[in-house]
Amino acid sequence: MNASQINVASDRFCSLEQVDAVDMTLEDQEDACRYARREKHNFSREQRKLIQVMNVKRKRDFLCLENVNGEMVNILEGLELHTDVFNAVEQQKIVDKVCELQEKARKGELKRGFTPKGKGRSAIQFGCCFNYRTSKAGTPAGILRHETVEPLPALFKVIIRRLVEWHVLPPTCVPDCCVVNIYDEGDCIPPHVDNHDFLRPFCTVSFLSECNILFGSNLKLEENGEYSGGSYSLPLPVGSVLVLNGNGANVAKHCVPEVPTKRISITFRKMNESKRPIWFTPEPDLQWIQPLQVELESSSSSDHVY
């Protein structure tokens, strides 16, 4: 299929996905659904995959200007938001897997699962262990090269493959580790810039509920529990993927304020080779992944803050 054929097929596929029930009897709706199912079978598996890639919404033109070291800088340069990457059935399968892993962590069956004190969130690390900040023993923040941890679960490797094949992450930065964050109501993540033991770009996938993520080069948590210096607030829809790169990853700090309801996120990263654990072996099924060959439209929407 060439680009024009894919576009036509994409429109047709979407219309089949959204059978209009307005002014239809129950019998009419059932007939329409049967027709839609038959029509879907006219597309090969590869064609359906290409159509799904085409239907991912991608926003790359974020703009928020701040004075950084005497210069006006777009602190969101390099930020991307991809929506409709995972459908409802896929999201539920991932959430079920996370709940299964959380139960194992509670039973002490996982090496790197923990719940911080206060208004933190539960976290489970795979692929590598790392400290978020310097420990009481003086161990600096970053990857703990001599600590062991469970490898990436099989389902998470399927997610990584999709992220690369569907043009969300580049094939030059295929993730080899991740952290699962499980938020209960009121949990949060304080302002930070991700450690440079991990390469850019990296990404976060959101599940269960929408929340906002704050960005700002001077973002900080005040003693009264309020955030200051947050210049830009971005909603993260369920099933979306936020990619952080450039200034969006390195200049702007980011945080997740107290969430209103339960939320799950999975942050996928690629380790700096010189920082990998001494026992690390690359996953064979994550090698040589390439994006699907399809032409994608450039982002045209604007969301600017001056």
Automatic annotation (TrEMBL):
GO terms for MF: demethylase activity; mRNA binding
Q: Which SUPFAM superfamilies match?
A: Clavaminate synthase-like
Which InterPro entries did the record assign?
Answer: AlkB-like, AlkB-like_sf, ALKBH9B/ALKBH10B-like, Oxoglu/Fe-dep_dioxygenase_dom
Q: GO annotations under biological process?
A: mRNA catabolic process
A Pfam match is: 2OG-FeII_Oxy_2
Coiled coil regions, renumbered to chain: none
Stretches assigned to the Fe2OG dioxygenase domain: 174-272
Which family does the entry's similarity section mention? Belongs to the alkB family.
Record-given protein name: Fe2OG dioxygenase domain-containing protein
Which organism is this entry from? Answer: Brassica carinata (Ethiopian mustard)
